[in-house]
Amino acid sequence: MSILVKSTGKYFQRIFFTKEYYVLIAGLILVGEVVLNTAIIKYVRYTEIDWVAYMQQIRGYSLGERNYLKLRGDTGPIVYPAGFVHIYSILYSLTQQGQDVKLAQYLFGVVYLITMGFVLAIYKHCQSLPTYAILSLVLSKRLHSIYVLRLFNDGVAMMGLYVSIWCLITRRWNWSALCFSLALSIKMNILLFFPAFGFIYFQSVGLLKTINLMLIIVLVQAWLATPFLLEYPREYLSKAFEFKRVFEYQWTVNWRMISQNNFLSPSFASLLTVLHLSTLVWFAWTRWSRAFGEDGLIPLVIRGLQQYSRPAAKRPNELTPDYIVNLCFTSNLIGIVCARTLHYQFYSWYAHQVVFLAWQTPYPIFLRILLMVLIEYSWNVFPSTSISSTVLLVSNFLLLFGTWWSFDALYSFTPVASKKKSKVP
Length: 425
Hints:
The chain is built from 19 helices and two strands. It has a two-stranded antiparallel sheet with strand order 1-2. It has one domain. A hairpin with a 2-residue loop joins β1 and β2 (76-77). By secondary structure, it is mostly helical. The protein is globular, with a radius of gyration of 22 Å. α2 (22-43) packs antiparallel against α5. The relative contact order is 0.11.
């Protein structure tokens, strides 16, 4: 009996604690998501928020209008880059000018599945995340709602972003830049990942190649925006990349604990911007530039400038998928913590990332799970309250602090042979 229990325990450990059966578990998750999303679309009532406005805006484009200020819907003019117009023009055509909402829901179900597929593909390469942890990816009520019951463009943008990160960890540099730009062309929140992408490019391929990759990103943006830039460039740039847009207090998820006057205050926005930039610099200075035997940000920059055609990192091949994903997700989380406002659909910006970030902290497993539960709870309180906003802010901060605290232990330089012996907690 003891032998049976022991062998069963070992088999259980192989399935859920190692990557040996990861593909099988990931496949079962995707099959389960097909069933779950189909059931949600069939049996849960669709909620109209922005879909009609999107279709009204796209109708103007289909009729030949190229002035971004005149591409209007019930919520006002388009406030997204040109990729949004092209993607939703396809949806406009497929759904009979937006009338077939049910078909649109199924199409967004496909977007959800592709997104999940690439998230699972990314985590397959991440040795710090045990297989059992990915089971949490299917549990978010809010995330399913964002994709198949609300039809927000956030989900489409994040799909492109995860494809880009997968290209990044598999060192398909040109493809990663292309997919990053495509994602950015749908919604500007993708810029939150940009500091990490730039840092990783500089470390991995050097200054010259990084400039080439940045050109890919810029040229893709210009190509997609050509119909608007040729006729109304100022109008396009003022709306597609509107950094000073002020959001309404009634929809905030993260700052309900402060007054509306403070929320709308320009000084509050400036403070958050300073915090955002200074936190990025702090992470780059104290953590990112010291991984795998590096000796700091300034030596890294100097080395990269001196040997501009070669990788700036001392050991570019040591930059593991875990490290790359950590930088991307942390850069995004810093932006989320310092965001002037978060609306409910913005949860899709990092919902798939919370589990990885939790396992990048030094906290015990029960506290990691508790943080994940509290974050999910906060995003499901509607309307948000002072308590839910405070819980969200504190939970996000603890997640961010935990990744900073344990970074050295996870990514200090050790010989490859000893890394293979390390076990996933």
